[in-house]
Structures are given as C-alpha cells and as structure tokens.
Amino acid sequence: xxxxxxxxxxxxxxxxxxxxxxxxxxxxxxxxxxxxxxxxxxxxxxxxxxxxxxxxxxxxxxxxxxxxxxxxxxxxxxxxxxxxxxxxxxxxxxxxxxxxxxxxxxxxxxxxxxxxxxxxxxxxxxxxxxxxxxxxxxxxxxxxxxxxxxxxxxxxxxxxxxxxxxxxxxxxxxxxxxxxxxxxxxxxxxxxxxxxxxxxxxxxxxxxxxxxxxxxxxxxxxxxxxxxxxxxxxxxxxxxxxxxxxxxxxxxxxxxxxxxxxxxxxxxxxxxxxxxxxxxxxxxxxxxxxxxxxxxxxxxxxxxxxxxxxxxxxxxxxxxxxxxxxxxxxxxxxxxxxxxxxxxxxxxxxxxxxxxxxxxxxxxxxxxxxxxxxxxxxxxxxxxxxxxxxxxxxxxxxxxxxxxxxxxxxxxxxxxxxxxxxxxxxxxxxxxxxxxxxxxxxxxxxxxxxxxxxxxxxxx
Length: 460
Ligand SMILES: [Ca+2]
Ligand SMILES: [Zn+2]
Known about the structure:
Layout: E1 2-5, E2 11-12, E3 15-16, E4 24-30, E5 46-47, H1 50-53, E6 55-60, E7 98-119, E8 127-133, E9 156-162, E10 172-179, E11 186-195, E12 209-216, E13 224-225, E14 232-236, E15 243-247, H2 255-276, E16 287-293, E17 301-304, E18 307-311, H3 312-318, H4 323-336, H5 351-366, H6 389-402, H7 407-417, H8 423-429, H9 433-447
C-alpha cells in the first residue's frame, strides 16, 4: 500500500494540489489494488449514499462504449480487477474527458465527495474539477459545455483533483476524498464534474472511474459498503443431488452467518422436505438460489422460480430468531410446485393451505421447540382453521395428531394433481373441514379455559 499524497499541500512530490477555502483533497493510491478498495484515510466505496440516488447525466463528451454506462458511477459496485472496463465509466478514447452533472434532487449538506478509479496504467489516476451550485442564482446554467466557465454560470468551485503520480508507472487503484475539517464542504443541489484525461500521448487517457460517492451530512445512516465481487457460496446436499447458491453480494455482512448457520439447515432440510412432500412423477427442483435482496419492503422472504429471496434488513434484525425458519418455509414453497403444470381442470389449492403447509412443516417439524404457532388467549379470537400461516399450521398439526399422521402428505398430493376440494377432508379424516375446525377450536377453548360466548337470537 502506497499513500502518495494527502491534504492540500500545494506541491507534493511534484504534484499540484489545489485547495479552495478549507476544502481538502485526500488522495491515495494502491498498487496493486484489491477488490476491497481498502485505503488508509479515504473511506471505502459505498452504497446507499446520495450519489447513488442522484440523477447523473453527461453534459458533454461521449461515453466509451467499451466501458459501462454512466450508472456504473452510482451503482454501489466496484470492479474486482484492475482492468475491468464493464465495471467502470470512462469517456470515449481520443476525447479529452467531458462534463458530468449530478442533480441531487434537492439541496443537501454535503460532508464528502469521494471518487474511485482503477486501471493498471495511465487510466488509473483522476483529474477533474468539482463545482457545486444550489441552482438558485439568476445566472445559473445547468447545461454547460466544455469551454464554458462554470464560475460565470452560477457555479462555485469546490475542489480540483489531480492524482497523477510523478513516477513512470501511473497504474493502480485510486481513492479521492473531498472533505472539510468543519465536516461540511457545502450545501448544494447540483454537482458538476469537469473531467480531464490523464495524458494525450495516445488515445487512451480517460480514467476508468468506478464509483462516485456523495455523503449527506444528515443521511449517512443508509450507507453500506459497496459490493465488490459477487459473494457466492455454492454447496450440494450430501448425496450431490441438490445444488444451492447462497448469494450475499448485496449484504456481505451476512456471508458468515449464511455459511455457518443457514447452509447447514438448507443442506439437511431441503432433502427432508422433499421426502415429506412426495408424489407420483414429482421431480423436485434441483438448483436453488438463495439471494439476499434489498427493496423487499415488509416481506421477510419470498420464493419463486427456484429462487428464495431474503430481505436483507429483516434478516439482519432476526438472525437469532426467525431467520432460518423463514427460509425453511420458503424451501417448502420451492418443493410444493403447485402451479407448475396447471392443465385444464386444474384446481388450485386455496391460499390458506398453500401457506399453512409450509408453516406446519416449519413450526411443528423443523423447530417445534420455538412454539411459534401456538393458539393462545391472545390469538384465540382469530383462530380459524383457514386463517392461514401459523394458525392453519396449528390446525394441521392438531388434525395430523388426532386423525391422520399422513394428512399433510395427502393434502400435498391432491394439491399437486390439481384435485383439491373439500371432500378430500372427509376422505382422509371422515369429517368435513368445518367440523374439524370447530372441534379444534372447542378443544383449544377448553384448554385455555375460555368461555365461548353463545350468541342467543335476539340478544346481541
Ligand atoms: Ca460502480
Ligand atoms: Zn409462504
């Protein structure tokens, strides 16, 4: 790790550094760099910063089609290697850089602007001037072209960056931090990056920019480390029959937990669930991806198309509690395959059973000690056999114990064949599902010593 320069020394190792007001430009170079972009003073690239949410456009200059789109500068991802054109944005070969406009949507208090680049040769260093504006001044122009002076068009210069080392070799991984000792470089809505090439001796002097982060002084709690390479953990069940990929790229912090806690559960329970829900001609899904995802709102996990989606925020909060069990529930959905071949006359299983079966297998077979699907005084009022999820799970468990130990297996079989109807309950248990539901509820009332209110006609 070589740190080449820092702060606003005017001339350091023959490099020119500019410093405006108190704003400081800190630059570091790693040669060779690594996928972690781990600098000493410059923070590692991030996701969830204001740069990622901003509208970024090219005002002048062309994108080089050999590289990635401009979104590479704000996708919260960085390359895994020194020469990875697709993961970077750079201006067209032969041109002298260009102008990038970042619209943050509203004026924010910016504490840092950080930029990252990586290339084995002259396209590694960064040369640009950064301007800011609130967009309010009468002379403000947002659609600048090269050759126009931002300073006479309503812009203020924030910093000038030039990380070119004076050595022969220019390659490496560069991180730049633009900051201010006060913690605030300014209040801006618009940022303008006037990007220059690093050399003109050949056509390939445009920097491979990997990411630009803009840190809102008041919004840093959303910020996560940028994703580098995909974090995949591939494993098979013992017999090599089923294959799994755990993808924690979007949540590197969950990688260890997933490998140590979740993978063993999947390895043990997927084949078990397949055995618990057999069927004639049934071919279980043999490749399952477990993907940690953002943007799932209030849904903890979901399943579909051989993939289980895990809500990163929810998992982080429930690792010690319900996280693993929720994956068991989703694995049941992968095994169910109830809608795979809906030929004519196919009757879909009612939703309360589609969800009740996974919760039954989860709460009564996988983790019975958790007592997560009990009927209590608290939920007794809602205890209807078709109330879905845990409540239906409790009902299924009761009916399994009392009437038929193969109840769930049998329900699953008719569901896959598309032949479910209420007669099925009579065939299996000798009673209608309504009768069973009442009996289950009555037994629970007795156990909980709850007086079931009889509503007499005429008396509310
Ligand atoms: Ca990026
Ligand atoms: Zn479900």
